[in-house]
Amino acid sequence: MENKKLASQLLKKSKTARYERFGRLISLAALLLIMLVVVSIIVFVASKGISTFTNDHISLKDFFLGTIWNPGTNTPSGHPAVGALPMIIGSFLVTLLAALVATPFAIGTAVYMTEISPKRGAKFLQPVIELLVGIPSVVYGFIGLSVVVPFVRNVFGGSGFGILSGTFVLFVMILPTIVSMTVDALKSVPNYYRQASLALGATTWQTIWKVVLRSATPGILTAIVFGMARAFGEALAVQMVIGNAALMPHSLVSPASTLTSVLTSGMGNTVMGSLQNDALWSLALVLLFMSLFFNLLVHFIGRKGAFKK
Q1: How far apart, in whole angstroms, are the C-alpha atoms of residue 216 and residue 89?
Q2: Digit-coded pLDDT (tens) for 207-247
Q3: What does the pLDDT average to over 147-164?
Q4: pTM over cut 0.85
Q5: Which of 166, 205, 228, 285 is positioned for an S-S bond with 94, CB 3.0–4.6 A?
Q6: How far apart are CA 122 and CA 12, in angstroms?
Q7: Which CA distances in Å does 135 have to 82, 129, 132, 138, 142?
Q8: Could you tell me the superkingdom of the organism this chain comes from (predicted)?
Q9: CB burial string 142-152: b at 16+ within 10 A, e below
Q10: DSSP for residue 125
């Protein structure tokens, strides 16, 4: 009898074990909820986005290669005017140019903060970077409208609205993201790499260039891709300075548009289920696929970096 009582007490779960099980269930429920939300968003956007091709019978060629965007009307050649090519090119141009301009500044800032003067970097530059992250998009857009657009107009010509203005605004917006992640990548390089390089007679700059930056290359590339992902998805600030003209960009100072700027300006002015609305959902689907592509690219770069280590 005593043995049975002792066995039942030993088999009975303790209070700590019950808490642990409850914690695991809560974590699992949160994970499943997040996965359900993500899958639901993808399915919803995909179902709406393909309506242009299934319900409205627009061909993929007319949508992706067409250069005239005015849903509900036809082009002079008789095809539906739902060409998304100007917005796709506009999105890629501002994204690539912003990343191209921001990357040298971000790497230089990160090198100063981690390799040259870590104390000053932590004391002065880190708060500035955090402040830039916290500024709302509309403030960036308003500054761009008041400062960047007149500057581009006076220096480069044109109306000031265009891809170049969008590039300058996005450059400032993605700079904190690339700097922060590059700093983390540089800090993750083991100190004995630096010590071994200096012990072999290399100078500080040779150590930074040939050892630290090369070792942190996967992390730096990940930072750049994250910055590009943010630039590609930015809507409000770009919409305020790019001109919102759904035309093929002929120069960097001519008005253009991006996927996000067309979506934000047009979604509230269409009727659900109409061709105009379906075409906007197709743009949203393209935007979603590009976001997934950037995420996959980040994972691929991370895995390549892990394999090298």
Answers
A1: 31
A2: 999 999 988 988 898 899 889 988 888 888 888 899 888 88
A3: 91
A4: no
A5: 166
A6: 52
A7: 35, 10, 5, 8, 12
A8: Bacteria
A9: ebbbeebbeeb
A10: I
Tokens of 197: 């390089």
Cα 123 to its chain centre, rounded Å, is: 28
Token pair, residue 33, equals 């909820």
**Residues in the chain, total:** 309
Alpha helices in 188-273 (DSSP H): 191-199, 204-207, 213-215, 217-233, 236-241, 259-266
From residue 127, alpha-carbon distances to 110, 113, 123, 134 in Å are 14, 12, 7, 11
Per-position DSSP letters for 264-302, written without gaps between them: HHHGGGS-TTSHHHHHHHHHHHHHHHHHHHHHHHHHHHH
pLDDT single digits (tens) 94-146: 999 999 999 999 999 999 988 888 887 777 888 888 888 888 888 999 999 99
